[in-house]
Specification:
Blueprint: H1 2-36, E1 47-51, E2 69-70, E3 75-76, H2 82-94, E4 98-104, H3 115-129, E5 134-139, H4 145-151, E6 156-159, H5 178-184, E7 187-193, H6 201-204, H7 210-235, H8 239-248, H9 254-260, E8 265-266, H10 269-279, E9 290-292, H11 293-296, E10 310-317, E11 319-320, E12 328-329, H12 332-342, E13 346-355, E14 357-359, H13 360-374, E15 379-388, H14 390-393, E16 400-403, E17 408-410, E18 414-420, H15 422-428, H16 461-486, H17 490-496, E19 501-503, H18 504-510, E20 515-516, H19 519-530, E21 536-540, H20 546-567, H21 571-581, E22 587-589
Parallel strand pairs: 1-4, 1-9, 4-5, 5-6, 6-8, 10-13, 10-21, 11-12, 13-15, 15-16, 15-17, 16-20
Antiparallel strand pairs: 2-3, 7-18, 14-22, 17-19
C-alpha cells in the first residue's frame, strides 16, 4: 500500500510539473504570436533607420512564430527575409521622414557564407545613396571581414577604439570521418561520377583529393577577390595594399587602420550618436530619432495596385528532399510552378534558388515544370548564396539565369552514399540476422537492425555495378538537361561539370549563367521580357497559416528548439550529418556547407 501511494504521489507530481512546463510554453507561444501581430508604428520626421543584421537572413522569412521559438527565453526571434530587407531599403529611400541609415554591424549570417546576400544588400544601399541620404556605419564589438565589406558601402565607417579589424582572407576547413567510421565498424558505400564530386570525400578519405583542393582554391580565390575589389573601390585603397595587410597578419592598432583609410575614425558609441545627431541638424540637447529596421518593417505603405498582370517570385530555399518544408524543397514546388504557368494573369516567373541540392529525382520533377513554364512565358532563375548541383539542375531550363558574382553554383554531378555496418552490428553489438527471400536479389542492400540507416552487410560486387550504372545514367541525364537549357553540347558541359563548384563570376565566363546580379535584377529582366511597365509582384508558395503550422508541427518545433539550445553552434553539424543519413537514391548536392569569417 505504501509503495502504491508513493508511485501515485510521484505520478501526480509529474503531471503537475508537465502542466506547469506546458503552461509556460503556452505563455511563451502567446507572446511570440503577439510579437508577429504588432500594430503599425509611426515614424517621426528626421528619423534615422538603424539596420542591425543580427539574425540569420533567409531569402524569405517564415511568418510562423514557432519557426525560431527559443525555449530558453520563451520568445521567438523574428527573422527578416532578404526580400523584405531589399523592399524596405527601397521604401526608406523614398520616405521623406527617413534622413539616413545607420549600419550597426558585427557579424552577418545566412547559408553558405552569406556573400551573395551581403552583395544584394550592399547594392540596395548603393541605390539608397542615390536619393541623397547618408549612410553611416559603426560597430562596438568589431567587424568581421564580411560585415566590414558591407560597411564600406557607407559614406563614413567608424569603429570602437579597441576593436581592430582582423583581415585573414578565406580558408576552407573540412572534417573527415573515415578513421572514425573504421573504429566503430561502419563502411561507407560510395558510388559517384565526376572527379570533382567531393561530397563523399569526408567519409572515404582522411584529406582532400587534389581535384577537390583545386576547385576549393579556385572558388575561394574568386570569392575573396570579389570582396577585396569591393573594399578597394569603396575605400579607395589599392587591392595590393589590402592583400599585403592580410598576408602580414598583424593586429594593427585601430589608429593604423584609420591612417590607411579603412576607417574614418575611432570613437565610442556616445560620440557616434553625436555624429548622427549632427547629420540630422540637431543640437546636442535635442533627442535623436532612431528606428530599428524590425520596427520599420511594421510601417504600412500605400500598396494599392490594380494591375491585372503579375510577376510571380517563387522561392526555392533549402535542401531538395522528398517533401516540402519550411527549410526544404520538395516535389510540391513543381506544383507551384505548374499553377503559375497555368495562371493567365502571371506574365513572367522568377525562380529564386538558394539550395545546395539534394534528391536528383525531386530535382528532375521540378526541372520538367521549369522547362514547360519557360516554353510558355519568361522564366528567370535568380541564384542566391548557393544554387549548386540539384540547385543548378532546377535552374538550368530557365531562359535567363542571374547569379551574384559570389554565388556558388555548378557542381554538376551525381552520387550515391550508403553505410554498411557489418562489423559494428555483428562483432561490436552482437546482433546477428538471417534472411529468407523469394528472388535472388530480394535482400538487395541487406537489413537494417538499428534505428539508423546502416545496413548489416556491404554491397556485393554485382549490386555495386548495378548502382554504378544507375548513377552513370543519372549523370548523363543531368548533362542532357544542362545541354538543352544552356544550348551547349553534352561534351562541352561535361568539360566544366564533373561535380566542380564554380562562383557566379566564373560561371558567367563558362556559359552556365547569363547575367551577374541579384533578385531585383532578375525581376527587372522578367518585367522587360514580358513587356510590363506596371504589374503586381506575388510571392509563392503561399505559406500555410502559422496557426495551422503550430497544430501540425508543435512537437517538432519544440524538439528543434531544445536541440538548438543544447547544442548551440554544434547544431548545424548535427543537422548536416542527420541529413546525410537520410539520403536515399541518387543525390545531386554540393560537397559541404560553407562558412566564412
Amino acid at each position: 500500500m505504501k509503495s502504491f501511494l508513493k508511485y501515485l504521489l510521484a505520478t501526480i507530481v509529474g503531471i503537475i510539473i508537465v502542466h506547469v512546463i506546458l503552461f509556460f510554453v503556452f505563455i511563451g507561444l502567446v507572446g511570440a504570436i503577439a510579437s508577429f501581430s504588432s500594430p503599425s508604428i509611426e515614424i517621426k520626421d528626421n528619423t534615422i533607420l538603424k539596420l542591425s543584421l543580427k539574425t540569420a537572413i533567409p531569402d524569405r522569412a517564415s511568418e510562423n512564430p514557432l519557426q525560431n521559438f527559443n525555449l530558453t527565453t520563451m520568445s521567438s526571434e523574428k527573422q527578416i527575409g532578404l526580400n523584405k530587407i531589399l523592399e524596405y531599403i527601397d521604401n526608406a529611400s523614398k520616405d521623406s521622414r527617413i534622413r539616413g541609415i545607420y549600419l550597426d554591424l558585427t557579424e552577418i549570417n545566412s547559408n553558405f557564407g552569406a556573400l551573395a546576400t551581403i552583395d544584394e544588400i550592399r547594392n540596395a544601399l548603393l541605390r539608397f545613396k542615390q536619393s541623397g541620404k547618408f549612410i553611416y556605419s559603426y560597430t562596438n564589438l568589431g567587424y568581421s571581414q564580411k560585415s566590414y565589406y558591407l560597411a564600406t558601402v557607407a559614406d563614413s565607417v567608424f569603429v570602437n577604439p579597441e576593436t581592430p579589424l582582423l583581415l585573414t582572407g578565406m580558408s576552407a576547413n573540412i572534417s573527415f570521418y573515415k578513421d572514425l567510421l573504421k573504429k566503430i565498424g561502419v563502411q561507407p558505400e560510395v558510388i559517384r561520377v565526376g572527379k570533382f564530386k567531393a561530397a563523399v570525400e569526408p567519409y572515404i578519405e582522411t584529406h582532400m583529393s587534389e581535384a577537390n583542393r583545386e576547385q576549393v582554391q579556385t572558388y575561394l580565390g574568386s570569392l575573396w577577390g570579389n570582396i577585396v575589389k569591393g573594399i578597394s573601390a569603396s575605400r579607395n585603397i589599392p587591392v595590393e595594399k589590402i592583400n599585403q595587410i592580410t598576408d602580414d597578419f598583424k593586429i594593427y592598432p585601430v589608429e593604423e587602420f584609420v591612417k590607411e583609410g579603412f576607417f574614418d575614425g575611432a570613437l565610442y558609441e556616445y560620440a557616434m550618436l553625436d555624429k548622427l545627431r549632427e547629420a540630422c541638424g540637431l543640437t546636442e540637447n535635442e533627442k535623436l530619432s532612431l528606428t530599428s529596421f524590425e520596427d520599420y518593417t511594421k510601417v504600412t505603405f500605400p500598396t494599392v495596385n490594380f494591375a491585372a498582370e503579375k510577376i510571380a517570385v517563387i522561392y526555392a530555399q533549402g535542401n531538395i528532399e522528398f517533401q516540402q518544408g519550411p527549410e526544404s524543397i520538395g516535389p510540391e514546388l513543381a506544383t507551384t510552378i505548374r499553377k503559375a504557368r497555368e495562371d493567365k494573369n502571371i506574365k513572367a516567373i522568377v525562380l529564386r534558388v538558394n539550395s545546395p541540392g539534394g534528391s536528383a529525382l525531386t530535382s528532375d520533377i521540378i526541372w520538367k515544370e521549369v522547362q514547360l513554364a519557360a516554353q510558355t512565358k519568361p522564366f528567370i532563375a535568380s541564384m542566391g548564396n548557393v544554387a549548386a548541383s540539384g540547385g543548378y539542375y532546377i535552374s538550368c531550363a530557365a531562359d535567363t539565369i542571374v547569379a551574384d558574382p559570389t554565388t556558388l553554383t555548378g557542381s554538376i554531378g551525381i552520387f550515391g552514399l550508403l553505410f554498411s555496418g557489418e562489423e559494428l552490428i555483428k562483432d561490436k553489438l552482437g546482433i546477428s540476422s538471417d534472411v529468407v527471400k523469394t528472388n535472388e536479389h530480394s535482400d538487395f542492400g541487406g537489413g537494417y537492425p538499428l534505428p539508423i540507416p546502416i545496413s548489416d552487410r556491404p554491397l556485393t560486387e554485382y549490386e555495386r555495378n548495378v548502382m554504378q550504372t544507375y548513377i552513370n545514367r543519372g549523370y548523363d541525364t543531368f548533362l542532357d538537361r544542362v545541354s538543352q537549357g544552356r544550348h551547349m553540347s553534352k561534351e562541352a558541359v561535361n568539360e566544366i561539370a564533373q561535380g566542380r563548384v564554380w562562383t557566379g563570376e566564373d560561371a558567367l565566363e563558362l556559359g552556365l549563367v547569363d547575367v551577374l546580379g541579384g533578385l531585383e535584377d532578375a525581376i527587372a529582366i522578367a518585367a522587360n521580357k514580358a513587356g510590363l511597365d506596371y504589374y503586381q509582384l506575388i510571392e509563392l508558395p503561399v505559406e500555410r497559416s502559422p496557426f495551422k503550422d503550430i497544430l501540425l508541427n508543435f512537437s517538432q518545433s519544440i524538439r528543434t528548439s531544445i536541440l538548438k539550445s543544447e547544442l548551440g553552434d554544434f547544431y548545424d553539424t548535427y543537422r548536416e550529418q542527420k541529413e546525410w543519413l537520410k539520403i536515399k537514391g541518387m543525390v545531386a548536392r554540393i560537397p559541404y556547407d560553407l562558412t566564412f569569417n
